[in-house]
Amino acid sequence: MNAILPDASRRGFLVTVSATGALFALGQRAAQAADGFAPTIWYGIDHDGVVTVHIIRAEMGQHVGTAIARIVADELEADWSKVRIDHVDSAPKWGLMVTGGSWSVWQSYPLYSQAGAAGRIALIGAGAQLLGVKPADCVARNGAVTADGKSVSYGEIVAKGDLSRTFTADELAKLPLKPASERRLIGKPGQARDIPAKTNGQARYGLDARVPGMVYARPKLPPTRYGSTVVSIDETEAKKVPGYIRAIALDDPSGTVPGWVMVYADSFVAADRAVEALKVAWKAGDTDKVSEADLQARARALIADKATGSQVVENPGVDAAFAAAASTLEQSYTTATALHFQMEPVNALAFEKDGMFEIHTGNQWQSLVLPWLAKALGRKEETIVLRTYMLGGGFGRRLNGDYAVGAALASKALGGKPVKMVLTRADDTRFDSPRSPSVQTLRMAFGEGGRVTAMEHHACAGWPTEAMAPFFMPKGANGRPYDPFAISGADHWYNVGAQRVRAISNDLAGRTMRPGWLRSVGPGWTNWAVESFMDEAALKAGVDPLAFRLRMLDATGRNAGSAPNAVGGARRQAAVLRRVAEKAGWGKLLPKNTGLGLATTFGQERGMPTWVACAARVAVDPPSGAVKVEKLTLVADAGTIVDPDGALAQMEGAALWGLSLALFEGSAFENGQPRDTNLDGYTPLRMADVPDVEVEFIASTEAPVGLGEPATTVVGPAIGNAIFRAAGARVRDLPIRPEAVKAAIKT
Predict the structure, then answer these.
(1) Is 140 left (phi over 0), alpha (psi -120 to 50) or beta?
(2) What is the pLDDT of residue 616?
(3) Measuring CA to CA, which residue among 104, 45, 48, 55 is closest to residue 77?
């Protein structure tokens, strides 16, 4: 994993990156307290044998707490009925608190497995003393230690045993873990722990946060994301709204919410009405006339300028291969602005209490927003705490916790009084961090017999990591930093001879919006281009698209893979592709105007590849250009599947999101703002358009990797390739609109 990680002194924690992922370099010592036993900071066991697992990941519908608790409980040999989940508030001891990139299980698995093993070994040692036997004669199982027909429960051991054993970080890393054959929870069916609370109303979301004496607020948003300044505020009409309190232009030293005017009232209804009545004059920023066409034109100009961008992959011989090529192919692909539209609009409750500034909200990246809050409030990070709530949808929007800054400043402006800030759906959309529109140009060189000798990929889009987390940006071969989340996927596992990948930041997009991470991020556009281009290249070479891909997934050179996360390399990607083709009936005769398209990916990062392939069966109506997706077949090799039910839900949800982005979702910037601010103009996938979805996981005991995003990225190109096979129409823009299909059929 190539990543520049946060400065330890500035963040108050140290993160080390190894081949197994990000491990928190914190001292891990066994401890026995009056109320229980905590072999590491990641969980504790009380006198009743109840195991409470501390979860630093945000819960937004993916049941991440259940998956991580399973990892601990399996290695600990805990009684699953006594396992509880605790989603913790922000604190330096937890290290990097982030939920995104499909990282949660992948990063947590080695850490929590070691923690569980430490507890099991300590409990066996203490249990053996209580039973009067040797530890080697004991077996831990289902929350108890047993030997010679006698047993003692974990609760009894915690209450009576000697649990003074300590573990250093090095010792933890060397602890023996259970072989896969002895797992009793990992990979086994089971219901998520948080389902009852989510269905009976007990689950607490950010929107549910309440404290006595709070007032409500809604912001009046400026005409541009950046650069707008308040000229005047006219409260005349707002004062006529019952419950209206006042309006304040926020002063934000962090530059997160420039130009905001916060409107306060004794209820949200009053604040909502007062915002509409309030008259504010702004001096707009210089992007107030920017359109989608402007953004795309800027991207094309930047791609054409070969002096721009960062060389992410730069093999020797690319130019020579193109110069000597028997033939070449070049195509360009675009994607439109995509918005999040999570179910729960962003919101936050903020106030000062006992010297601490508390922010109550759902958030995916606490470690990112805390420094922003500190700068905005003019206080130290350690005096700010983010209280944890469930998220009514995240999808990457809540990786950017910018809304917490607005709420905190709203409270500060009232002397620390509790303020509950809520954005309307339209506010949320205008203040969204959209997936930037993108432009990509791909080239391929062919030698004799259609053999691929070189490939270039140039991608330009707004970079979310540049905008919000530049410390996460590595440097390319030419020494320039790049956003890995805006180019991942382009560094694919195909053997294409000499390869060049160039990532380019669209500076105009970066000034017009705060580009954001949206489920799958860069591969949402890079894989659209790569897998569409592979079908076009196969046609150019006169080779079947499946055979063309398999020929290049030869697992040689840099694509051979390595331990611990990428064992097998491109060989495993070829396996899922073969399997999905077999399941979907590749090569079989289909009805007229019906086609089957293929696409494959490794997910997001080469350091933690999730091998996925999709076959999309679509029917095209040539007169109208309408496309109906009849079935999506997906096969994934994600290594060890920790929570089968959660994994299936992740794959299904990601696939349908990919379908939605492929055919239905897409907005455009007009006058510096997203054109669509509600779900009448922005039309995600509806239930009537959901096709049959079949998912298969390849059985594996390899390291578990991520499943939240990979399936999102294969569906669009599979559909595009299927449209071509159904009607001979090649579309190169996402979303795929009927008029574009109709036009492509004519040409």
Answers:
(1) beta
(2) 99
(3) 45
CATH of the domain at 315: 3.30.365.10
> In sequence order, what are the residues at sequence separation of 6 or more whose Cβ sits closer than 8 angstroms to the Cβ of residue 181?
none
**pLDDT for res 420:** 98
Spatial separation of the C-alpha atoms in residues 162 and 131, rounded to whole Å: 12
Establish if 429 belongs to a structural domain: no
16: enclosing H helix or E strand: strand 15-18
Same domain, 599 and 647: yes
By residue range, what is the domain housing residue 88?
8-200
User: Are residues 543 and 464 located together in one domain of the fold?
Assistant: yes
Q: How many domains does the chain have?
A: 3
* Spatial separation of the C-alpha atoms in residues 717 and 725, rounded to whole Å: 12
Nearest 10 degrees: CA dihedral of 86, 404, 685, 338? -130
Q: Which residues make beta-bridge pairs with 33? A: 36
Residue with tokens 């009409």, as numbered in its chain = 237
- Residues 528 and 718: their CA atoms lie apart, in Å, by 9
pTM as predicted: 0.94
The answer to whether residues 109 and 166 belong to one domain is yes
> What pLDDT, on a 0 to 100 scale, did the predictor assign at position 632?
98
Strand 150-153 relative to strand 327-335, pairing: unpaired
2 belongs to a structural domain:
no
* pLDDT value, residue 76: 98
Q: Is residue 66 part of a domain?
A: yes
Do residues 323 and 271 both lie within one domain?
A: no
Long-range contacts of 239-247 (CB under 8 A, 24+ apart): 240/277, 241/265, 241/270, 241/273, 241/274, 241/277, 242/270, 243/267, 243/269, 243/270, 243/271, 243/274, 244/270, 244/271, 244/274, 245/215, 247/220, 247/274, 247/278, 247/280
Q: Domain boundary at 171, 200, 229, which?
A: 200
Cβ neighbors of 607 (< 8 A, separation 6 or more) are 1, 2, 19, 565, 566
How many angstroms from the chain centroid is the CA of residue 684? 19
Q: Which residues in the chain come in under a pLDDT of 50?
A: 1-31
Indicate whether 451 belongs to any domain: yes
The SS3 of residue 181 is: helix
